[in-house]
Design a protein that fits this description.
The protein folds into four domains: about 50 residues, no CATH class; about 70 residues, no CATH class; about 150 residues, Jelly Rolls, CATH 2.60.120.1440; about 70 residues, Phage tail protein beta-alpha-beta fold (3-Layer(bab) Sandwich). The chain contains ten helices and 18 strands. The strands form three sheets. Strands 1, 2, 3, 4, 5, 6, 7, 8, 9, 10, 11, 12 and 13 form a 13-stranded mixed sheet that branches. Strands 15-18-17 form a three-stranded mixed sheet, covered by helices on one side. Strand 2 and strand 3 form a beta hairpin. It is globular, with a radius of gyration of 29 Å.
Length: about 375
């Protein structure tokens, strides 16, 4: 039903007939059915592509429509029809027939083709969703973009830039609710004790019943983080049998060393010990900004890029995904500089200029690559 409604609203949108409430309804339906977004984009692309004009095709279609009108019982006298046919090639370029009838025929033909294309696209997507050969639904975001989706059980997921969420659309929710995450996602899970919600990442599995939490698990980053806002979650590391329970306002940080080294640390309880174990599994409280109680770990959901006393290297990774760029350090020492800032609508250049107020560095832009270098000739910029 929702797919049919999307098709109807999309057709009205392409025709320029949608009302503001209908546009809002379409946006909500696409958020609830993210698999249809690609279909809509393709349909919109084909709709806005100018069709090639084929005179032979238009003429044949014109005669086809004349015959169709006759079959439907319209009063077209044979004399009038013959006169139109006989004079087709002699009519001037600005004649009514060429100027209007041909355009009308072309428009009708294009509408038929477009409708067929839309039906094919949506049917193809339906086959892709329901086919046993392709049971997986995949939602992904590019760098510099974020999106919000709703899963079949009503669970809401926010995906940060360069992230991907995959789940089996055939068996999701039958016994358990399972998804696989790469990148960063914030989950508001609908509570259902009979069907636990499980998130698989490359380094750990997270089991929940109903809660709000954030997971950051980018493959190129050294740490994997789980931040619990409300409820409770159970974390199981891929290479360990023990389970780690998180309470509200706690954050679990797992470093790559926890998987490269065996037996150094087995739970968050002994993470407070000394030596390498402390660097492998760390349990901390969430970072809350005192001025407005913003939770740093989930600020990105409100379209805010926030970091507090984080190294420049960590900040650069966040800025890469936020702005869709590549940041290179020409000076390794610059990576350890601590930074604290909040950005929302600032451009990349504005953000870098703001960071220069507290940290000595220069930056050079080359297309999508930003090179950072430390400078001794530091001049504080006045606001």
């Amino acid at each position: 039903m929702s797919r049919d409604r999307i098709f109807t609203l999309l057709s009205r949108k392409l025709a320029g007939e949608t009302t503001p409430p209908e546009l809002e309804e379409l946006a909500e339906l696409l958020a609830a059915n993210p698999d249809q977004q690609r279909s809509m984009d393709l349909a919109d692309e084909y709709w806005n592509t100018a069709p090639e004009q084929d005179k032979d095709f238009l003429e044949a279609t014109y005669h086809l429509h004349l015959n169709r009108l006759k079959d439907l019982g319209h009063d077209l006298t044979e004399t009038a029809t013959n006169e139109i046919n006989n004079n087709w090639k002699y009519l001037p370029a600005v004649s009514f027939k060429q100027k209007y009838l041909k355009k009308l025929v072309a428009a009708c033909a294009f509408m038929i083709v477009a409708a067929s294309l839309l039906f094919y696209i949506f049917s193809k997507d339906a086959l892709h969703i329901n086919s046993p050969k392709n049971p997986q639904s995949e939602i992904s975001t590019k760098t510099g973009s974020r999106t919000k989706i709703q899963l079949p059980d009503g669970t809401v997921v926010w995906l940060n830039g360069s992230s991907k969420l995959v789940y089996n659309n055939e068996h999701f929710g039958e016994e358990i609710r399972e998804v696989t995450l790469t990148g960063e996602g914030c989950f508001d899970v609908v509570k259902n004790p009979a069907k636990p919600f499980i998130i698989h990442t490359s380094k750990m599995d997270i089991k929940v019943l109903g809660t709000i939490f954030n997971v950051r698990c980018y493959p190129e980053e050294r740490n994997t983080e789980t931040s619990l806002i409300r409820g409770s979650i159970e974390v199981t590391l891929k290479n360990r049998k023990d389970k780690i329970m998180l309470k509200p306002s706690e954050k679990l940080i797992i470093s790559d060393e926890a998987f490269a080294t065996t037996g150094k640390a087995t739970s968050a309880d002994n993470a407070a010990g000394k030596g390498i174990a402390k660097d492998m599994i760390v349990l901390r409280h969430l970072t809350v900004l005192p001025q407005d109680s913003t939770i740093v770990e989930t600020a990105w959901v409100q379209n805010r890029l926030v970091f507090s006393s984080e190294s420049f290297e960590e900040v650069a990774l966040k800025m890469e995904k936020w702005y869709g760029v590549v940041i290179v350090f020409a000076d390794e020492k610059l990576k350890q500089e601590p930074l604290t800032a909040t950005f929302k609508k600032e451009t990349l250049q504005e953000a870098l200029l703001a960071l220069q107020l507290t940290t000595r560095f220069n930056f050079k832009t080359d297309n999508d690559t930003i090179t950072l270098s430390k400078t001794k000739n530091y001049v504080k910029i006045k606001r």
